[in-house]
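# step 3/5: fold
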Amino acid sequence: MILYLHGFRSSPQSFKARLLAQRMHALGLAHQYACPQLPASPKQAMELALNLIKDVPAAELTLIGSSLGGYYANWLAEKIGCRACMLNPAVQPPRDLEKYVGVTTAYHSNEVFEFKLAYIDELKALAVEKITRPERYYLIAATGDEMLDWREMAGHYAGARQRIIEGSDHGISEFAQYADDVLQFCGIDTRDVS
């Protein structure tokens, strides 16, 4: 099973999440892919994720985390012992998201939501200082990420498999080029359907 965790203000309607859902559908594996709408509260987001994967053995689970979802995936992977693929992951969201405390909107729906100050403490509770088994991780980071520093990502995932993309952007606009590579890391055979 693959559990995709989207980023801050994002949703299952993000480009990368939809592309992977379509690819899994084409492979006849749509039932093995989940991308829930995560609540603004990090604590509630992790409760939702843990509930979705509670019956999935760690060996059969891969998390894909984009931006803030990467931070969540890191915490979950360390807690559960599963694989995780990070797409321009946030490494220090308590620091980076403090400026967003207040009322804001979601990217794909313009739905208004509140990002509360208490959520910063919830994020701090999910901090992973150092990954324990780098071989379980795959980092895809773009040097052109306009929101997060790829060097911070590369340092945090030292020893893990890494693909550093020269240029690009936070959303990894050319993600279609890497989708099958990501799915193969997840243990999916992508050769049968192109």
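# step 4/5: annotate
The chain has a mean pLDDT of 96.
# step 5/5: archive (pending)
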